[in-house]
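Changelog-adjacent note: as of this version, every example in the card shows the full chain rather than a window. The one below runs 280 residues end to end.
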Amino acid sequence: MWHGGRVIPTFWWDGHPNFGDDMTPWLLPRYGILPVHRRASEARLAGVGSILEFLPQTYDGAIWGSGLMADGRHPLPDAHVLAVRGPLTAERIGATGSVAYGDPGLLVSRHVAKPPSQFHIGIVPHGHHRENSRLAALARTGGRVVTVINVHRSAAVTVRQIASCDVVFTTSLHGLVTADSYGIPACWTTMEPPLTGGDFKFRDYEAAVTPGRSRYVPFSEVASLNDLMSSASSADDALVRQLTDGLERALALWLSSTGGRSFPWGVVSGASLGIRHPRP
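Full-length structure tokens:
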């Protein structure tokens, strides 16, 4: 939903449908930005997702809540780092000064109210894991109180379904992020086939949201849905609120500081560039 504002060339992964990647074009219009997808080298803003390896080291646009996919150095000395997913990414790209932490997916609960509970457990497999037979068998033991959520849909649809669960078990990072936004107890795991970059993005994110505490549970040790229930826990509400405030503040300050002059493809309307929360 866009109510006017700034048109900004933006980079997000669009190789295949995925609700986590869809959060960039879904969220930014709620903050006065209409993101127009551009290649990484042409973008002036990088958004949600493990996308920083795509940015050339000469990139001089802004970064808002993005992260690295894998644990390796990728210096971005000219970037305007407004926020990154977590402190591990910040160190690997050489971010200095005041940098906000957190995945912008944490903002979803500020725009979509939590729906009534429909499922006791929501299982959110990464696309690589949808066909995992053991995971499917585990889900079947719960009958109708368990739902397996398809991440290859829009953010608007998938966020609401995750938010309707009492507990979340996930191999998708944004399954965990969405649960944390709504204060839903969650835990995560890894399974075959392994994700590119391993568990780096989870460790990076949790270093910001649950510092010193991981909600990882080895899948080999999950024998029943009760094991998931006992392993799940919520992020600290106060810390999530602090991170989400910081993400919003960083974006608002950047918008006000650029003044509309830095974007050759940009168009400025008469609408306010301040933070807004339109109806979903």
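Structural remarks: Residues 69 and 201 are 6 Å apart (CA to CA).
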